[in-house]
Amino acid sequence: MAATDLNTVRKIIEKRLNDEFRTGPTIPLVFNNVFFDSSTVDQYIQCITSFGTSEYLTQHATNLVVGLTTFNIYTNEGLGAGANFDIAKRLRNLYNRITVSDVRFDPPVGPEILEPTPDGKFQTQVRITFEIYETLIP
To answer: Which H/E stretch holds residue 102?
Structure first.
């Protein structure tokens, strides 16, 4: 029986993000379970990928795996929302209604302005749901 490797899905999402922000103006990227000191940088993007409940779609062993990727964008306070919105636009364009290695991304939600978590940072958030159709082979 074959099933989707959730770590592979996470790597697909993170690789696309790494490739985009390695060119042009580079912005530090932060992923779950990785130490990061936000006081050392002016701006950064936090990427959190989580998985929801899977569904059996047919009796022919097809499953739907759903997930959510949340991008928290931080820039220094006092610069206004423009810098965050520029980064959010790059993120939206990167994942908007595309399929990458069988991972189908839905239209993004946001950017939404949130209360800043780290002191001295302005925060916006973009959320993107995704799904993977997997066929289980006995």
So the answer is: none
pTM attached to this predicted model? 0.85
Give the orientation angle of helix 6-22 with respect to helix 82-95, to 10 degrees. 130
Nearest in space to 114 (alpha carbons), one of 46, 66, 55, 16: 46
Are the beta carbons of 127 and 108 closer than 8 angstroms? yes
As a residue count, the chain comes to 138
- Tell me if 35 sits within 8 A of 44, measured CB to CB: no
Burial-class residue 2 by CB neighbours within 10 Å (0-12, 13-18, 19+).
exposed
Averaged over 31-60, what is the pLDDT? 79
Q: Which residue has the tokens 């950064």?
A: 44
Contacts of 4 by beta carbon, 8 Å cutoff, 6+ apart: 63, 65, 132, 134
Lowest mean pLDDT among 41-50, 59-68, 98-107, 121-130: 59-68
For residue 29, give the nearest of 67, 82, 76, 71 by alpha carbon: 71
